[in-house]
Amino acid sequence: MRQIAVIAGDGIGKEVIPAGIRVLSSVCDLEFHELGWGSDLYLRTGAMMPEDGLHVLEDFDAIYLGAVGVPEVPDHVTLWGLLLPIRKALELSVNVRPVNLLRGVRGPLAGRGPDDIDMLFIRENTEGEYSGAGGRVHTGTPLEVAVEVPVFTRAAIERTVRYAFDRARERSGSLTSVTKSNASRYTYVLWDEVVEDVHQEYADVVMDRVLVDAMAARMVLRPDAVDVVVGSNLFADILTDLGAALQGGLGLAASGNIDPTGRHPSLFEPVHGSAPDIAGKGVANPMGAILSGAMMLRHLGELSAAQRIEAAVAQVTERGDALTADLGGTASTAEVTDAVMAAVAA
Ligand code: GGG
Q1: Would residue 163 show up in a list of annotated catalytic residues for this protein?
Q2: Which of these, 29, 17, 91, 50, lies nearest to 297 by C-alpha position?
Q3: pLDDT tens profile 304-326
């Protein structure tokens, strides 16, 4: 039986991941192992995960993660203590973030419906502005300086872009690469060069290059013209929050952190954070976590189980009688989960 490492983590992660596990367990034989890592562990021990944590993860077939962050600990401490080291050490080189407006969900764009919003973002997941290169000097004095250096390597850009071209081939055959290479003199210029080089191997895919500011405008003004998009760690993170808004909110957004080589377990997580404002109230939307679980099943080769879950979530949104407050409803996390499970079973 496939072994899944579970890191529910913090805040609403502890509510939406159990919901996802209930749904996944109803369609597939999986063994889930909650590792108990996150901010509670940090507050007890000073570490977000055990010293051998990255090694421990290697023994699993996949990782199912909820959210990271609590008000008591600075965000960069929690993120750099858990999620970012996992992405880097396990070479989860691409972050796949679909953006679909489901039937029944009211998106914010007037006159735009599910047929207009169906995008796939491929985010470079290990470097760029998230490289961790930098430092601070004269700390705590008026002369204090902080330097953060974005690092871009040809190898990381190439593996991300190649993955994106492959996805474009499976979809409409078009790919948009997002940078800010007019203002950047080195890093995004290299990115453009690598994209052009890899494009030679994908002559059947139409590729265009768009600046990140223009891409934000395009997503709002012409969402129907956006299909597969590849971008750097920071840019694609920001654009996919806009994408989540276009699909009705962060509560619906799913993602997979993938090692395309298959050498390491891939990690699946809802895009949202720990949402301390609603944590513990039982009202968080579990759909992003459930759909991330479906992505995990697809990755593990359980195609029909994944499709059943995706269809069930779509049925529940279309019916509209079991939605959490972020989608205009009054249902609890448990009630939405029950509705999805009933739709899976029907
Ligand atoms: N779902 C995990 C989580 O808490 N994500 C929030 C976050 O800030 N993630 C960092 C990132 O994806 O860049």
Answers
A1: no
A2: 29
A3: 999 999 999 999 999 999 999 99
pLDDT of residue 145: 98
* Distance (Å, whole) CA 239 – CA 310: 23
Q: What is the pTM of this model?
A: 0.96
The identity of residue 74, as a single letter, is P
pLDDT tens profile 203-230: 999 999 999 999 999 999 999 999 999 9
Q: Which protein residues touch ligand 1 with a CB less than 6 Å away? A: 67-69, 79, 237, 269-270, 272-274
